[in-house]
Amino acid sequence: MTDGETVSAAEGGGPAARTEFWTPGSHILWRYRENGGPHVHIARPVTVVRDDAELLAVWLAPGTECVKPVLADGTPVHLEPLVTRYTKPRTVQRDQWFGTGVLKLARPGEPWSVWLFWDPGWRFKNWYVNLEEPLARWEGGVDSEDHFLDISVHPDRSWYWRDEDEFAQAQRDRLMDAALAERVRRAGRSAVADIRAWGSPYADGWEHWRPDPSWAVPSLPGDWDRTPAHVSS
């Protein structure tokens, strides 16, 4: 799906790393695998804002066609009672990203990404820390697996945990074992330390960023669930 050029780390003057970076304006996929399974169940076409050895930043535009999980009967996942939310059969469906867009920031190897949300009129709302597997890069985008537990961070520097009930239910339903759950908790504590220190990305001014008005909304490719030929961290 990549529409733009890539630049290798060597071309950029870095070490002999083989990572190829997407140029700003490129279209890639930001995907999540189903928990406990190999299949992709979330796919979001995004536009690259920045990509280098320190940060991948992408823009999920309003109206983007995406793929999301639903129950086999079409019920939205969030409407299913928690006790059966992760055990009932599921499928996927195409849908649009409604509301304002989302800026996603991820540092290489880090077990979370930070998303920025705005209210209408570009009034900044909050940062959202999504705990997840470190992003795996492939020729068409990045893949991860969501870890349920999240953190909301607000402009006054207050923060709070989100979805602790889902995190607990996922363990009861054996979607994550004790070792993984502890790894997620450690990642959460590290993310909180970053929040308390108020370093990157919170102090970097991303809330004032705006997308290039010439950017087209990327389309969802027919092979959005394809298996990558090569994956790297």
Q: Which terms would index this structure?
A:
233 residues, mainly beta, 11-stranded mixed β-sheet, two-stranded antiparallel sheet
Structure explained in plain terms:
This protein is mainly β and 233 residues long. It has three helices and 15 strands. It has helices at residues 82-85, 164-172, 178-197; strands at 6-8, 20-22, 27-33, 40-51, 56-60, 65-71, 90-96, 102-106, 112-119, 123-132, 136-138, 141-144, 146-153, 159-162, 231-232. A hairpin with a 3-residue loop joins strand 9 and strand 10 (123-132). The radius of gyration is 18 Å and the shape is globular.
Given helix and strand content, the structural type is mainly beta
Biggest β-sheet: count, sense, barrel?
A: 11 strands, mixed
Helix content: 10-25%
Number of helices: 3
Strand order of the largest sheet: 14-13-10-9-8-5-4-3-12-11-15
What distance lies between the first and last C-alpha atoms, to the nearest angstrom? 19 Å
What is the N-to-C succession of helices and strands? Answer: EEEEEEHEEEEEEEEHHE
| Average pLDDT for all residues | 93
Q: What characteristic shape results from the CA principal axes?
A: globular
Q: What oligomeric state best describes the polypeptide chains here? A: single chain
Low-confidence stretches: 9-17
Topology, number of strands:
15
Strand content: 35-45%
Over all CA atoms, what is the radius of gyration? 18 Å
Domain DUF402: 82-199
Protein name: DUF402 domain-containing protein
Organism: Streptomyces plicatus
Keywords: Hydrolase
